[in-house]
Design goal:
Strand content: 35-45%
Number of strands: 30
Largest sheet: 5 strands, antiparallel
CATH topology of the largest domain: Neuraminidase
Shape: globular
Radius of gyration: 22 Å
Number of helices: 1
Distance between the termini: 56 Å
Structural class: mainly beta
Helix content: under 10%
Number of domains: 2
């Protein structure tokens, strides 16, 4: 690093009890002489989307890149591609808990203002053409730093194009019946006459972290990360819990890479899909509390395993554990289907059985 110059790097800090460790470099594979910043990580901690401004590797001034974690090692970054990235500024990603919906800010053509919030969805490994979130979210000025809560139903972002307290204020929109509602200002307990940006909320809805600008004694402006305790259910109604586990071969006990899918038992809707880590066999989901899920795990050459999992409201913050052992396919072997349900005193199957049968 040349004297008098600096660049942005991704760092990580871990909390033990109420103490955060000193920040250290996230990964040497991700570090470069260029700017890496504005990052988002999936709920399982294994997919990282971040911004890189390396003109030799971008389509525009800044692009969105991704890295995958295998065991304890982050892979070399790859550009998300020209379907997602544009020839303009693309930055400030927020990845949904399932890793398949991505929100970000961009000043590309086709928006409503200078910087707008866009989103894209992934099917299998392919990201779709990004869509503008429209006039419900975006204004004629700047709408930036989107954050999608773990529940997938609350979107918080910063804007200087709405009525507020001054500078960038933080707003929240709630999704109801698949439609985003008009955003509400988070109020003067969060916003002031300067800039507030990059608001995130813990999965249980109890704590928020964001960047707040303040004026120093010498009159200069400075930004710092602050935390804000949230009163119970006052901001996010539908909180989330976790399910964690390890997939192994039932005979050898070795770790397996398996596809794991979670369906809402009552709607038969696929909620989440992921793969267990190929080295450790570990997987992780963030799930909305108060729902029942059918959990299905499968790998080539093995019987699939199925479970019913009820996510109850929990204040412990600790994940529920569900280890999965897959049995190798063998001639004459059999399995039991768990998520099969019948109407009362009838042989007719209920709709709850559909995800299992499919």
């Amino acid at each position: 690093m040349a004297s008098g110059s600096y660049d942005e790097d991704l760092v990580v800090s871990y909390r033990e009890a109420d103490v955060w460790s000193p920040a250290t470099l996230l990964s040497k594979n991700i570090y470069s002489e260029f700017n890496e910043g504005a990052a988002s990580i999936s709920a399982d901690g294994r997919t990282l989307i971040f911004t890189m401004c390396d003109k030799g590797r971008t389509f525009g001034s800044c692009d969105l890149f991704f890295s995958r974690k295998y065991g304890e090692v982050w892979s070399n970054p790859e550009n998300l591609g020209e379907v997602v990235n544009s020839k303009n500024w693309d930055s400030q990603p927020s990845l949904g808990a399932d890793g398949n919906t991505l929100y970000f800010s961009s000043d590309r053509p086709g928006g409503l203002g200078r910087r707008d919030i866009w989103y894209t969805r992934r099917e299998d490994s392919t990201w779709a053409q990004p869509k503008n979130m429209g006039a419900i979210i975006n204004t004629a000025k700047d709408d930036v730093t989107p954050f999608i809560h773990t529940n997938g139903e609350n979107l918080i972002f910063a804007s200087n194009g709405r009525v507020g307290f001054g500078g960038y204020d933080l707003f929240m929109s709630e999704q109801k019946e698949s439609k985003w509602q008009a955003p509400n200002n988070l109020g003067n307990s969060v916003n002031n006459n300067l800039d507030q940006l990059s608001f995130i909320i813990s999965a249980d809805g109890s704590m928020a972290y964001f960047s707040q600008e303040f004026k120093k004694a010498d009159g200069k402006l400075r930004s710092q990360i602050v935390q804000w305790p949230i009163a119970n259910d006052s901001l996010v109604k539908n909180t989330s819990s976790y399910i964690f586990g390890r997939v192994t071969d039932a005979v050898s006990q070795e770790a397996l890479k398996a596809k794991i899918e979670l369906f809402d038992i009552f709607t038969n809707e696929l909620k989440y899909s992921t793969y267990s880590d190929s080295i450790s066999g570990e997987y992780f989901f963030a799930l909305n509390e108060g729902l029942s899920y059918g959990v299905y795990a499968r790998a080539k050459g093995y019987f699939f395993e199925d479970f019913r999992f009820d996510i109850q409201n929990s204040s412990s913050g600790q994940p529920d554990t569900l280890d999965i052992a897959l049995s190798p396919l063998e001639v004459g072997a059999s399995m039991i289907l768990e998520n099969i349900y019948f109407e009362l005193a009838s042989y007719e199957l209920t709709k709850n059985s559909q995800s299992e049968l499919k």
